[in-house]
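>> received
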Amino acid sequence: MIYSFKPVYDGKSKILILGSMASVKSLEKGFYYMHPQNKFWRVIALVAGNPVPESIEGKRQWLLDNNIALMDIIYSCERKGSLDSDIREVTPNDIRQVLDNAPIRAIFCNGRKSYDTARKNYPDVEFKYLPSTSPANAGGWSEQAWLDIKRYLSD
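>> returned
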C-alpha cells in the first residue's frame, strides 16, 4: 500500500486541486508533483502569475500565499510504478477536511483518474476536469484549460 501526503491548505484557500496519487518520484521526495517532467509546477506558476520556489517548503508556502489548496483524492492504494491505470484497492481521501475549513470556490481534478474517483466518492460535490499534467499525458494536455483557474483566484 502507498499513502498520499497531507493536504496543503489554510483558511484563505480559494481553489482545491486534486491529484490522483503521488508518483514514485514524488513519494521518494516527499511532496506533490516532484517528477521533473510533470508540468504541474510550471503551469500553476502561469495560473498564479508568479514563479514557484524550488524547495518543498517553498512550494508549500507558495500554494498558501496564492490561495491554492492541494491534495490527492486517493488516500491509499496499491500500485506498481506511477501510472494511474495501475491503481488498485483505492481508499478515498476525505476532502471535507479542506471544504469545511477553507472558502473553496471551485475544485479542479488533475486528470481523469482524479476526476472519476472524486465523482464516484463525492457525488454531491461539483468537480471540474483538467487534463493531467503527468508526462504520461503528453498528447492530451492543454495549458488553456488550466489557465481558466485564474478567475477563481481573483477577488
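>> The chain has a mean pLDDT of 92.
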